[in-house]
Amino acid sequence: MLHSQCWAELYAGVLPPDVLAELSPAVMAQLWQRFVTRGEEYAQYVAEVDGDVVGFVGFGPGRDEGYAEVVEVYFCYVAPGFQRSGIGSELLAAETDATYLWISESNRAAHRFYRRNKFGPDSRRRIGSLFGTDLPEIRMSR
Ligand SMILES: CC(C)(COP(=O)(O)OP(=O)(O)OC[C@H]1O[C@@H](n2cnc3c(N)ncnc32)[C@H](O)[C@@H]1OP(=O)(O)O)[C@@H](O)C(=O)NCCC(=O)NCCS
């Protein structure tokens, strides 16, 4: 549920409405099922406040060629009402050896967040794809 809300918020204005409409909790549940059954080198953590999940992060082997030995941050989300109170940084700190991540070029808030956490743009760029829509991305590493 939280994942679909976060995506809907994050990609409103970036993804076409028909794609946004498909980001249902059921689709997210399928994605999560795939993540959690991938093996022990993959790690997901959630942040809870009063028993509710308000944030989550996913790590695993680097997916870029030659990066399988280092840890990539796959995603990190904090629910809108709980952002900017340190939860994202705490989630990110769950894997101290996390080395790099890809992030949408337009997501300035997240760039700032990762900079705060010692990641910096490393000059690699790519055109990512989310549900068939092209999204320019930058890589940040530390
Ligand atoms: C990016 C995100 C994970 C950060 O988590 P968080 O709990 O809000 O971050 P923290 O409280 O640990 O760190 C806050 C710092 O991050 C940066 N930051 C976070 N949100 C920001 C925003 N909306 N605008 C500007 N800077 C922001 C700032 O440097 C901020 O420090 P400040 O409040 O002193 O200026 C969270 O805001 C989020 O889920 N955003 C939407 C989804 C997203 O973009 N995820 C990343 C893609 S995988």
From TrEMBL:
Residues of the N-acetyltransferase domain: 1-142
InterPro entries: Acyl_CoA_acyltransferase (IPR016181), GNAT_dom (IPR000182)
Molecular functions (GO terms): acyltransferase activity, transferring groups other than amino-acyl groups
Protein name from the UniProt record: N-acetyltransferase domain-containing protein
Biological source species: Conyzicola nivalis
Source lineage: Bacteria, Bacillati, Actinomycetota, Actinomycetes, Micrococcales
